[in-house]
Each structure stands twice: as C-alpha cells, then as structure tokens.
Design brief:
By secondary structure, this protein is mainly alpha-helical. It has one domain (2-130): Helix Hairpins. The protein is built from five helices and no strands. The chain has helices at residues 2-9, 13-55, 59-92, 98-114, 116-130.
Length: 145
C-alpha cells in the first residue's frame, strides 16, 4: 500500500489538470483532423467520378475503381492519423517514443528484407488497382470455377 501512496504522492492536481486538458485538446484535434480527412476524401471521390464521366468511362466500372482507390487511401490516412495520435498520447503520459519509433524502423527494415516478395506484390497490387486492371467486385473464373 505504501507503494501506491508513494506513486500517487508524486502527482499534483495542477499536473493532472494540465495533462487532462492537453489530452482533451489532442482528442479534439484528432477528431477535427479525421473530419477534415473524411471531407477531403469525399471531395476526391467526387472529383474522380467527374473525371471518369468526362472521359466517357462506363459508370459501373469507374465506380468500382474509384471505390477501391478511395478505400485504400482512406484506410492509409486513418491509420497514420491514429498511430500519430497514439504516439503523442504516449508521449503525454511520459513514455519515451524515440525507442518505439526506432524499433518500428528496425522491424520495418527486417520485414522488408525478409519479405521482399510480399512487399513487391503489395506495391504491384496497388498499381494494378490504379491502372484499372482489377476492381472491387470483380470475379475470376479458374477452370470453370
């Protein structure tokens, strides 16, 4: 019990209120950033639809391609946003994030060397989608199945 009292004795109400306000501001900032990203992604989707209509592409095919591209971009941006928010939140709680970022870099490098073919396939798959070769909802027939 003395450990708990010693641990809690280090905190003051001033520090708790300041940390709480900073965390609240970060949550509001992350929420606003998420809403701005959603609006900009919706605007991007509308622009892509207009461009495909001007180019004379069939609406169903262009809609599938645009949906696929927008979904990929949306998930990548949201993962980056919330990962950044999580690291800033850890920093606010007093956790050193430098070693975490360095470890992530080393792990990423190890994965790149160990799974070069996988990374190459992911990049090739992204370009296949961008070049409109395969879309969400497409079906492949292999040996009549």
């Amino acid at each position: 019990m003395n450990f708990v009292y010693g641990f809690l004795g280090d905190f003051t109400w001033e520090a708790i209120i300041k940390t709480g306000l900073r965390i609240s501001m970060m949550i509001v900032f992350a929420w606003v950033a998420m809403k701005l990203l959603q609006k900009s992604i919706q605007r991007l989707e509308k622009n892509l639809i207009l461009k495909s209509q001007k180019a004379g592409e069939p609406p169903s095919e262009s809609q599938k391609r645009i949906e696929t591209i927008v979904r990929l971009i949306k998930q990548a941006l949201f993962i980056a946003l919330w990962l950044t928010f999580g690291l800033v939140l850890l920093k606010e709680f007093g956790v050193e994030i430098g070693p975490i970022i360095a470890s992530a870099g080393v792990v990423g490098l190890a994965i790149d060397f160990g799974a070069q073919n996988l990374v190459r396939d992911i990049i090739a798959g992204f370009f296949i989608i961008l070049e409109n070769q395969i879309r969400v909802g497409d079906v492949a027939l292999v040996n009549g199945t």
